[in-house]
Amino acid sequence: MDSTPSPSSPSPFDLVSSALGRYIPQGPAAAAGGSACPQGDPTAPQGGRTAPTPGRQEQILGAVNLDCDLRITRCNLDAPVFAGLDAVTGSSFLDLLPPGDVPTVTRRLRQVLETGEAHVARVQRLRRRDGSELVVSMSILAAATPQEGLTVSLIAIARRLHLYAAETAIGTSLDIGETAQSLAESLLAWGDVAAIDLDFAVWTGEVVPEQPQGRIRLRRAALVPDRAWPDGYVTPGDDLPSDASLLLSQAILRDDAAQAIVIPDRETIERVLGSPRLARALEPGDQVSGVACIPLVLAGAPPVVLGVAEVWRRADRPFHDSELLDLQELVDRTSHHVDLARQHQREHRQVLALQRRLLPRTGGDTVETASVYQPATPDSAGVGGDWVNSFPLADGRTALMVGDVVGHGLGAAATMGQLSMEARALLSAGLAPDEVLEHLDETVSLLDDADSGLAAGYSALGSTCCIAVYDPVSHQMALSSAGHLPPVLLPPDGPAGPLAVRPHPGLGAEFALREPFDVHTFAAPPGSLLALYTDGLVEDPSLSIDEGIDRLADAVSTVHPWDALPQAARRLVSTLAPVHRRDDVTLLLARMIGYRKGDTATWRLPARADAAARARTLVRALLGQWQTRDDIRDDVLLVLSELVTNAVRFARGPLTVRLIRSGHGLLCEVGDTGNGRPRLGRPALLDDGGRGLHVVHGLTTRWGVRWTDTGKVVWSAFAV
Question: Residue 385 and which of 314, 360, 372, 553 are 20 to 30 A apart at CA?
Answer without folding.
Answer: 553
